[in-house]
Amino acid sequence: MVRLGKYKTPTVTIYYSGGKLNLNKSYYLEPQFTRMLSLMETRMNPELYTKRYWEVRNLIIQNLA
User: Fold this and answer.
1) Which of 9, 13, 20, 47 has its CA at a distance of 20 to 30 angstroms from the CA of residue 27?
2) What are phi and psi of 27, to 5 degrees?
3) pTM of this prediction?
């Protein structure tokens, strides 16, 4: 996950065998985006996530509180 652009919008890139999928927070509502992240975290091995992903994820959670 990275933060892109002027407003530092979080973007998640998922790589799979056929290509990649980008999930951009500006496209989804806040609850939908965080729900998708939570679902991915329960389904995928935690070792697949980068350190940067967890840093941005924690920032998103802090903004909700």
Assistant:
1) 47
2) -85, -35
3) 0.72
Tokens encoding 63: 């903004």
Give the span between the Cα atoms of 56 and 11, in whole angstroms: 10
Retrieve residue 23's tokens.
Answer: 């999930």
| Phi, psi dihedrals of residue 50, rounded to the nearest 5° | -85, 165
Model confidence over 5-64: pLDDT tens digits?
A: 566 788 888 888 989 988 888 888 878 888 998 999 999 898 988 998 898 888 888 876
**DSSP-derived 3-state class of residue 23:** strand
- Residue 40's contacts (CB-CB under 8 Å, 6 or more residues apart) are 12, 14
For residue 6, the model assigns a pLDDT of 66
**Proportion of the chain in helix, strand, coil states, percent, rounded to 5:** 50, 25, 25
